[in-house]
Amino acid sequence: MHVVVTGAHGKVGRAATQALLEAGHEVTAVDLTRPIWERHEPGAPHYQQADLTDAGAAYAVARGADAIVHTAAIPVPTTNPPHVVFQNNLMATFNMLEAAIRFGATRFVNISSETVPGFFFPERPFLPDYAPVDEEHPIRPQDPYATAKHFGEQLMDAAVRRSDIRCISLRPSWVQHEGNYERNLGPLIRDDAQPGPGMWTYIDVYDLADAIVLATESDLPGHEVFYIASPDNAGGRDFAKAMREHYGDTIPLRPLARPDASGISCAKAVRLLGWAPKRSWRDYLDEEGRALTK
């Protein structure tokens, strides 16, 4: 397939682009970053610079695509003014989806977020209704990032009602790669007093990229939403015990797939996408959360 990957120079976009190329697809990589004029290497993606909040730019890059993988976004609500986060993330999603429909793309993979339920960046904090969290958990976003991601999923619902496009929204947990495991997860592993907003959840960027390839190639009808989280938790702690220590009985526990389970369930992605995560924090860090020497 000819696949357009937006946000291709970001953490997720780079890994997705490479995984799609390795799977045999033709890839057009799209980002805001200015291109550098160099000889095109065989097998490298074609690159286009575009601001996707502009509808004309979105239409220009979507033309001829069989599938769109939309990773482009301001990744957190705390580094830009709220209106900037909301407008950028929602309008880029709307424009790319509208262009995909008009040009007849058959698949749209929307990178949503684990923050959609609302308990990650709330001004009035609250806890999840149960753990591990799954796709049936109620959605109550407060911040502009999670709200825009929620609305993005609703755009997917509307798209499949009015066209033949098939949509998948992936909600990745906190994305890690070989360069940031120690900085991000190391403190959680060393200090049991830090549960983190996601109950020690994370996902390796290359496992996420595998899920993106599966979603791009999937024939699932309509719009499906999947959490993409590592099946284990950062630090490999006994999840039930850790939850009792931090939260008492305030967060009811559902059945666990394993003692060191994640705070977010990936069971639906495993079942319907055939996703099989292969990587763990243990591939990068020791038991003290320090980077493994090579």
Automatic annotation (TrEMBL):
Pathway: Carbohydrate metabolism; galactose metabolism
NAD-dependent epimerase/dehydratase domain mapped to chain residues: 3-218
Superkingdom of the source species: Bacteria
InterPro entries: Epimerase_deHydtase
Pfam families, alphabetized: Epimerase
UniProt name for this protein: Galactowaldenase
